[in-house]
Amino acid sequence: SISKVDVSTLVVSDGEVSTDQLCRLLSEGLELKPILIGIPRNLFGIVCKLIGREKLYQSLAGDLVIDSSLCRTALNWSPLISIEDGLRRCGATVVKEKIN
């Protein structure tokens, strides 16, 4: 139950999505073709290190994994729509608002 859980430890997430998927899904909703350039992770790391931007490398190339299972269990919660549908709808809303 929620009373037995330290709420400062709860992490809310509506699902898994990679940066690549995030860009593709938002672009789809925006009715745009995503422009994604593949750069080998090692090469990107070397370039960032050479220009003194190691933190940039860590934030862009590292994996951010969120485990929301404790939150979902404690709050008996699940998202109403998938993260994929939510991102598409977000992009589509931007397109619709630009038109109006």
The oligomeric status of these chains comes to single chain
Radius of gyration: 18 Å
How many individual β-strands? 0
> Based on CA inertia axes, which overall geometry fits?
flat
Account of the protein in words:
This protein is mainly alpha-helical and 100 residues long. It has 5 helices and no strands. The longest helix has 17 residues, at 83-99. The chain is flat and about 45 Å long. The termini are far apart.
Itemize the secondary structure elements and their pairings:
Layout (H helix, E strand, L loop, with lengths): L18 H11 L11 H10 L3 H8 L7 H7 L7 H17 L1
Helix pairs in contact: 1-5, 2-3
Brief write-up:
The chain is flat and about 45 Å long.
Please name the defining characteristics of this protein.
100 residues; mainly alpha; 53% helix; flat; 5 helices
